[in-house]
Specification:
CATH class: Alpha Beta
CATH topology: Rossmann fold
Number of strands: 6
Order of helices and strands: EHEHEHEHEHHEHHH
CATH architecture: 3-Layer(aba) Sandwich
Strand content: 5-15%
Radius of gyration: 17 Å
Strand order of the largest sheet: 3-2-1-4-5-6
CATH superfamily: NAD(P)-binding Rossmann-like Domain
Helix content: 40-55%
Distance between the termini: 26 Å
Number of helices: 9
Length: 245
């Protein structure tokens, strides 16, 4: 698989899954815009990509803010040109029992995890329509498939991502644009470690280990490739057997 000549945006690419996805696609020849709220994290990802011989630019942006997304999209277009591959990876999580879950925290979770994917996607779908080719991969979560205690807001936001994916997939299926989602399950990232110890979780997993960011990155690389041209609207679960469909 090659991504030579493709311009890519990966959100939340300053660490964890996003960093691995950005590096993997850059390693296949893509020019990558590394979007993240954390400027230092974005710059570190870009530095790693450039050190490996790839091309990348760092873009600091709050993907839940419409004006910020519009400005980031304009800068990305100026730096790279039209974007035909988008990976909506940015997201947050917290652990709050439902009876203690406030409206502000609910709204924050939905704004960052779900609304952001709408805002960023609408910025680049026109590029894909103009090219007659495009790939969107949305990162959802296995928690949306199984449910999870103290994560009603998170599971709901990520369940919305799965529905959003299917709707876009159908709408653009005859336009050369595929839209799929990957729900990670217990992947060892800084975000996971905010709520779990991977070593404690591993024995409960069928594979007896936590996933690694590269496991997700390789799945994304397939879905954005030419080889996946007839795959759209799908949920590619990368979870070590945690949830089977």
């Amino acid at each position: 698989m090659t991504m030579a000549g493709r311009n890519v945006v990966v959100t939340g690419a300053g660490r964890g899954l996003g960093r691995s996805i950005a590096a993997t696609l850059a390693g296949q020849g893509a020019s990558v815009a590394v979007w993240d709220l954390n400027a230092d994290g974005a710059e570190k990802t870009v530095a790693a990509i450039q050190e490996a011989g790839g091309e990348a630019v760092a873009v600091t942006v709050d993907v839940s803010d419409a004006a910020a997304v519009a400005a980031a999209a304009a800068r990305t277009h100026e730096e790279l040109g039209p974007v035909t591959v988008l990976v909506n990876n940015a997201g947050v999580t917290t652990y709050v029992p439902f009876t203690e879950l406030g409206e502000d925290e609910w709204d924050r979770m939905v704004r960052i995890n779900l609304k952001s994917q709408y805002l960023v996607s609408r910025s680049f779908v026109p590029d894909m329509l103009a090219a007659g080719w495009g790939r969107i991969v949305n990162i959802s979560s296995s928690s949306a498939q199984t449910g999870a205690p103290a994560m009603a807001h998170y599971a709901a936001s990520k369940g919305g991502v799965i529905g959003f994916t299917k709707a876009l997939a159908i709408e653009f299926a005859d336009k050369g644009i595929t839209v799929n989602n990957v729900p990670p399950g217990f992947v060892d990232t800084p975000l996971l470690r905010e709520g779990f110890d991977p070593d404690e979780v591993a024995p409960s997993m069928p594979m007896k280990r936590a996933g690694q960011p590269a496991d997700i990155a390789h799945a994304v690389a397939y879905l954005v490739s030419e080889e996946a041209a007839y795959v759209t609207g799908q949920t590619l679960s990368v979870n070590g057997g945690r949830y089977l469909v």
